[in-house]
Amino acid sequence: MEKQYCAVLVILLLATVVPSCSSSTGSRQFHFNVQWKNISRLCSRKEILTVNGEYPGPTIAVNEGENVAIRVTNGVSINTTIHWHGIKQLRTGWADGPAYVTQCPIRPGQSYTYKFTVSGQRGTLWWHAHIAWQRATIYGAIIIYPRMPYPFSTPIQAEIPIIFGEWWNLPVEGIETEMNKYGNGPNSSDAYTINGLPGSLYPCSVRDTFIQTVERGKTYMLRIINAALNDELFFSIANHTLTVVEIDASYTKPFDTEAIMITPGQTSTVLFTANQDKHDSTGLFVMAARPYLTTVFPFDNTTTIGFLKYKGTLAENMVLPEPYKLRLPYHLPRMEDHAFATSFSNQLRSLGTPKYPCSVPKRIDKRVVITISLNLQDCPVNQTCKGYNGKRFAASMNNQSFIRPLNSILDWHYRKYSSTQYSYDFPQKPPHVFDYTGVDPMTHNLNPEFGTKLFAVEYGTKLEIVLQDTSFLNLENHPIHIHGHNFFIVGRGFGNYDAEKDTGSYNLVDPPERNTVAVPMGGWAAVRINADNPGVWFMHCHLEEHTSWGLAAGFIVKNGAKPYQKLLPPPDDLPAC
């Protein structure tokens, strides 16, 4: 069995770069060096933050059940951290990565080794910086090869990471600082990228276009990751059908689709077969990604493209067509195709077989209802504010706008320090009851409270969290990521959540299992969690501008009674604040 997965890894090496790993069975070791690199995109050059000089960064390829140690050395003059997005971090919250939540940042010139075990997970995840806006360029794929063969019989010719990102011509390092100072929104990105390449629709980018050669009759696996900072994306390939087989490292019931919708933070693994007849085409097919629009704020309305190039056809030697000659895939959804986004999400179901059971809690011990809001704050006296109408933008959960403290919350919790910086009284239901999705976006606007509030649950709690969108400023789709746990999306709907009515339509048989949920614009999503991972866990919108405004919270899972139900002690090299 081990030989089978080594062979798959060799195929992956053809598509991406994998760091060296130890030869010892059951463990992998990697070394990340955060450093600047000067690169050229969109007719200009600039320095960007990278890991090991690679953009996107190196792939972490491991086997299910392995122990992983990743030594991160900070070779730049600003603080940094790395988050292993979707890794459950069972009892190893010290390795989760969000700055000032589970660790203090890695200071310039210092190192920290993230140690964790990949347990009970298989498929596509990713890693990224988790401080300020560094994840604009510091990100890469995580591939977890399963102990057992894939639950589908189709032979796979190659596995190809597809990582969407955003590119800014100006430096991004100061964006959050500017937003915090003036309360304004960020500049929109200048391009979307596929594996760091914007594609030929952008200026000076014909050579910076992703091209994948395929063989007719072969089936390929795309491991798709949305690493964009602020935009949900639609993706499709001209004349090809995609089969969804896994999301967020959890297998799904396979289904065919002409396109997918993927939010920042999410992953989707799809199969496609290169089945186009050689007599009907040149052998060159456009793949494209463009935003799913649910905001009134300025956004990047461009499209990134790449190409499938069939081996043994005219495409092998042809020059890429001029942009004005290109046609996007006809089934690529339009930017405001809410119907497609809803339909796609509704098709997702856990595989739910004896080998891969769906362990959704049928009953719950606790329900927490959280409103998600964008807000306006009056400008403080003697300050300059650049938000709407001379005010400051903010964002909140249950009217609490999250402020990261100056120390690690997890460290303070573990050592049972008293703290005036954070508290355990996060409201577990909306402090004000109103027509959440029907109020006037501009005239009804609650001023949030600012602070660092969390809520705590006992180990083993069957927890339900209902996430409710509001119409303050505008109705918007929000990708909410919960650290430390997978969850089951048992219900979604539009309008205001009604427990008496909506629980009756819950899917408690095969709901999709994820770590990031798209809360629909003008609607709600209910997720259920087996809270069996002790520690402090961040919960936030994966639209980076919203997190910068405070659209975040946290919760604590207390230690259980048995030794294996307790948070492990902090490592010796844990960074200090």
UniProtKB/TrEMBL annotation:
It is an enzyme of class 1 (oxidoreductase). It catalyses: 4 hydroquinone + O2 = 4 benzosemiquinone + 2 H2O. It is found in: Secreted, Extracellular space, Apoplast. GO terms for molecular function: copper ion binding; hydroquinone:oxygen oxidoreductase activity. Binds 4 Cu cations per monomer. GO terms for cellular component: apoplast. The keyword Glycosyltransferase does not apply. Its cofactor is Cu cation. Belongs to the multicopper oxidase family. PANTHER family: LACCASE-1, MULTI-COPPER OXIDASE. Lignin degradation and detoxification of lignin-derived products. This is Laccase. It comes from Lactuca saligna (Willowleaf lettuce).
